Structure formats: C-alpha cells, structure tokens
C-alpha cells in the first residue's frame, strides 16, 4: 500500500523542537513533506501576507524529508505548499505543531498553528493541530507519542468529516501518565491583558503585551477541563463562524421591529 | 439620556475613507472614540503582536472625537483601547470598518476588520463589523447609511445576545437601491490562490499572493446569495469554533475503535 503523504507545518518556526518531534512521529506513518515559517510566528492567527512578496528556501535539516522554509505566516506556508511547492502532489493529511504552548479554549483564534491547520482544511485536506501545554524550548513531547499516533492513524483510516479539522491539546509532561483522550467542545475563557509600559532607548513610550488566561468555566465537556484532569483534548473544529442559534432572534430584532 | 460610547476601529488604517464615514455616522448616535491601526492591516486575521512593543499616538483628524493610532494589528488596537487608552471608560458598542472589500463567506477568518470586532465581543462589548463590496479608495458608502444606522440603533436598544457579534456586508453602490437587510449564515466558498512569480532587483525569486474568491454555493440563507441579490447581509457570528455535530462521531472513531 502506498504510504500517505503528510504535510507538516507549525507556527514556532522550522527550527523549533516541536516540529522536529512531529516529523519524527509522522515518518513512521507516511511520506512527510514540510513547509514551515523561517521565524517564530506565534499569535499570527489567520494572517496572510498581501502587501509583500514571499520567499521560499529548501532546507536540509530533516533526514530524508523534503522541507521548505517560508518568509510568511503559517497560513501563507500552507497556501504556498498547496499552490506552488507541492501543487502537483496529492496531500492526504496536514498536521501542524507540535505547538509550544496551549491552543485550548479561545486560544484557537489567535493561534498560527491552528490557523495553518484550518487553511489546509479549507483546501479539502483533513487537518490536525497539535499543541503542548508547555512553552519551554526544552519541553518534553514523548509522553504523548502513542496518543498522537492513534489520532493520526484514526484520521487517515476513518476520515474526519464535518469541518475536517481537529484541535488537539496535550497536558504538560508530569509524573502522572496521560489518562486518555477526551473529545470536547472549546472551553470558555479569555485573556486578561496587562500591557507592560516602558521607554525605548530614545525615551519614547512603548506598550508590550502580556497577560494571563482566565478560565471562565469548569463544566463537563470542555477542553480546558479535560486538560486539567490530565486528558488529551480533541475539539472537532470548523471555519463556519455562524452563530446559528441567533439567526432568528437577530432577524426579529432588525426586520420585524 | 446619556449618549452611548462607541469605539470605532478598522483594518484599512486610520486614514481610510471607510472609517471616516463610519465615524461620521456614529457621531449622530453616540460619543465616539477611535483606536485604529497607523497603517493598512488587511488580511491580518486575529493576529496579535507578541514579539514587539506597540506604540500609540493621539491624532486630530476627526473633529471632536478622541482618536488614537496604533502601530499594531486591528486586534492589538482593541486590546489597547480596552486595557490602556480607555481602560476607565465604559464602552457600549464597538464598530469596525467600514472595510474596503467583502468580508462575507470565509473572508471573515482572514479579516482584520472582523477580528477586531470579535476581540471586542470577547471583552464583553457587543460588536459589529461593516464591510463594503468595493475595494476602491473612491468607494461610495452613502447608499447604506440608513441601514447601518438601523443595525447600530437596534443593537444598542435590544442587544445581540449569543456571540455578541455581527458580520455586516454591504453591496457595492449601483443604480439599484439596496433591497433591505437579510440575516444569514456564512456562505461556503474559498479563495483559489494564484501566486505571481517574479524576481526582485537582485535577481532573487519571489511569490506574491493573488487569487479569486470562488463561491461554492447559491443556496438560500447564505450571505453570499443575499449580497448577490442586492441585500445587506447580517451574519450573527461567534468565536466558538467547535463543530458540535462532529463531537460524538469523532469520539466513536477515536475512543471506541
């Protein structure tokens, strides 16, 4: 049987440990191809580069894997992979990550990792974003290997349907083994920003974004809860942002006043 | 009665004609405050600036309106408005736009205009993004004035509920008057990219994103159809990207194999 072709990308940049780990795992399953940003692109959301030209360069940092770095955003990488670099190749799956840091809850909308995965899903490629709840460069990924492989193999064998997109988050490595996989909804919560005020070398004021994530719920079924209980969370996700439950109500308010 | 405080932002930048038009309209309803990008930020999606400091400057281009320009993305602007510039002020509504160009269908996920509005909704501020199906700097906005005012006044009087967010798109001005307002779901379609290949002055290859939007449906109820029939489309939108219909199916595939 022909091995599936798996496109790997991320938002931490092509030299991040997380993507190297994901490539290593994917090589046990399929033919791996890589297009990833040449610099860190955390928090880029679904940004695309319209005002500037993009550059791509072949790199040789992963043994036996055709790999390209790109000057743009994670979404640019997927568009270039699909339309330029591998335009004549069938891509069976896209995996993005492993992100250094959580993309659970509302983090999905800020996440370059998940936006790259969503872009692939829009190109009709089933797609999975993986994120680890550990920002550190030295983060340990091994404890999730068997679960990542299970999720990827299941996707390749059975397909995803729906929005063709999974948001997978992995608890930080600890002395407790991961309990299993919970399929969840996106938990409620948001970032409470604190802007650090400072002065640059010329004495001009600046503001630098910082903040803490506020978990606004602990109800059953959310990814945030599953992760806090040491489960891997899997949220089937979609690019359809319609709030269907509100359509009739808003129509009445606007049109039947 | 105290006038409502309305925060105006956009993604085309603080000098774009669309935001000037929206400010003019909002001044007839409320106390207007403005925080908008100091340069065009189209296609920035929900990007935030993590790696660099942000700058803000007071500007005096709108009569009697406290206005600030910001060096960051549209989402940065809303975060700075809420947490720094107007942190002690109650904001009753956020309006974003009027965008020069459509944010109907899948465009919502790439749109800085809609991401700014969504960010406000996450801060518990009801929020509306307005976009005109005309990219031109000379675009005419007047034909939609009465509809924009109706949508904003209805929101202020009755509230939005749900995701607290509306995506409003307006047909390009033509000889046909706008027929009315349709409350819709996000239509299906995507961008078919074409990357223009070229060489820079030093002879190095670049790729520049271009493309056409492909409308993949004409079914009743979508914003794309309503706009093609010369209606204003209003899509109640949400930052919850969960594909609820898939949760049980994915759970069976992964956990009950």
Describe the structure in your own words:
Two copies of one chain form a homodimer. Chain A has 257 residues and is of the alpha/beta class. Chain A has one domain (5-189, 218-239): 3-Layer(aba) Sandwich (Stationary-phase Survival Protein Sure Homolog, Chain: A). In chain A, 24% of the residues lie in helices and 28% in strands. Chain A is built from six helices and eleven strands. Chain A has helices at residues 17-26, 74-85, 112-122, 145-158, 223-228, 247-255; strands at 5-9, 31-37, 56-59, 66-70, 93-100, 127-132, 165-170, 181-183, 189-199, 205-215, 232-237. A nine-stranded mixed beta sheet of chain A has the order 3-4-2-1-5-6-7-11-8, with helices on both faces. In chain A, strand 6 (127-132), helix 4 (145-158) and strand 7 form a beta-alpha-beta unit. In chain A, helix 2 (74-85) packs parallel to helix 3 (112-122). The radius of gyration of chain A is 19 Å and the shape is globular. The relative contact order of chain A is 0.14. Chains A and B meet through helix 2, helix 3, helix 4, strand 7 and strand 9 of A and helix 2, helix 3, helix 4, strand 7 and strand 9 of B.
